[in-house]
């Protein structure tokens, strides 16, 4: 058993769990972390896809009671049914665009320069949204209108630009559509389940042959670590967003983007 690879998998799992749901982009952080610890490039892409399953599982486990309650009530309660339909509506735009342009996105947008640009652009947009006066009209997911769900879904398309962050794009979309922060965040978590699951299964099916049996322990360590850390992050984020705005995340994104550009200019990623 390669203990060095297990340790690196542990580190990458922690990074994934910490950054997947914070609006700061897990992609950018995984690129830097992988380069810093020398994670094997041959399995990096497949490994990152696999450990996303841990983050998805964390959302399902954390919200399992709420989700089961929605499903039970959907047959008789129009509000519960509307919430599920809205998640489906929001899922469609990014799913369609991602399926159509998957190869182009992988070929042209997965590099430090584009990730750094996405981090900074997303950070600036978050600041503008927070500084812009607005009035929230929706305070419960079940009260959201289908047009709000579509707005969130269209915003999620931006997350196909690596580094922009799925969490950031859906949060911004929800806020601009008239949701308050806790509602936009909860809707973002619900939407993450079909979105991330579809993307992970799609990518994993294409890369399954790249996994060697000797690497399975490292993959398992990364998945379990991402799951446990993501559970803590979900609880923290729900509490934080209920009382604070997103400006600190915006400033952090811009700083990390600048750092990535500096590292790329210094040849760190070559």
TrEMBL record:
Domain of life of the source: Bacteria
Function field: Catalyzes the dephosphorylation of undecaprenyl diphosphate (UPP). Confers resistance to bacitracin.
UniProt organism field: Candidatus Thermofonsia Clade 3 bacterium
Listed EC numbers: 3.6.1.27
Protein name listed in UniProt: Undecaprenyl-diphosphatase
HAMAP family found in the cross-reference section: Undec_diphosphatase
Chief location bin: membrane
Membrane topology: Multi-pass membrane protein
Family, per entry: Belongs to the UppP family.
Cellular component annotations (GO), alphabetically ordered: plasma membrane
Subcellular location(s) per record: Cell membrane
Catalytic function, reaction form: di-trans,octa-cis-undecaprenyl diphosphate + H2O = di-trans,octa-cis-undecaprenyl phosphate + phosphate + H(+)
Molecular function in Gene Ontology: undecaprenyl-diphosphatase activity
GO terms, biological process: cell wall organization; peptidoglycan biosynthetic process; regulation of cell shape; response to antibiotic
Swiss-Prot/TrEMBL keywords: Antibiotic resistance, Cell membrane, Cell shape, Cell wall biogenesis/degradation, Hydrolase, Membrane, Peptidoglycan synthesis, Transmembrane, Transmembrane helix
Gene: uppP
Residues spanning the membrane: 45-64, 84-102, 108-129, 187-205, 217-238, 250-269
Tagged with keyword Cell wall biogenesis/degradation: yes
Misc. remarks from the entry: Bacitracin is thought to be involved in the inhibition of peptidoglycan synthesis by sequestering undecaprenyl diphosphate, thereby reducing the pool of lipid carrier available.
């Amino acid at each position: 058993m390669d203990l060095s690879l297990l340790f690196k998998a542990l580190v990458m799992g922690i990074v994934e769990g910490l950054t997947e749901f914070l609006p700061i982009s897990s992609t950018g952080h995984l690129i830097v972390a992988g380069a810093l610890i020398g994670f094997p490039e041959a399995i990096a892409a497949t490994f990152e896809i696999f450990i996303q399953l841990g983050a998805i599982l964390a959302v399902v486990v954390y919200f399992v009671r709420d989700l089961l309650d929605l499903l039970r009530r959907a047959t008789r309660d129009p509000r519960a049914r509307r919430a599920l339909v809205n998640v489906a509506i929001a899922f469609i735009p990014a799913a369609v665009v991602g399926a159509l342009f998957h190869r182009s996105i992988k070929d042209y947008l997965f590099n430090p320069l584009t990730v750094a640009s996405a981090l900074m652009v997303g950070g600036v947009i978050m600041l503008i949204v927070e500084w812009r006066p607005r009035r929230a009209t929706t305070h419960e997911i079940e009260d959201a209108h289908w047009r709000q769900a579509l707005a969130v879904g269209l915003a999620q398309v931006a997350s196909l630009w690596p580094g922009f962050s799925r969490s950031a794009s859906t949060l911004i979309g929800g806020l601009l559509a008239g949701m308050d922060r806790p509602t936009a965040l909860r809707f973002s978590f619900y939407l993450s389940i079909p979105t991330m699951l579809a993307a992970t299964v799609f990518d994993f099916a294409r890369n399954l042959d790249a996994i060697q049996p000797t690497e399975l322990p490292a993959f398992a360590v990364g998945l379990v670590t991402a799951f446990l850390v993501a559970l803590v992050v979900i609880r923290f984020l729900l509490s934080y967003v209920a009382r604070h705005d997103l400006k600190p995340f915006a400033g952090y994104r811009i700083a990390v983007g600048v750092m990535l550009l500096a590292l790329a200019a210094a040849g760190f990623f070559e």
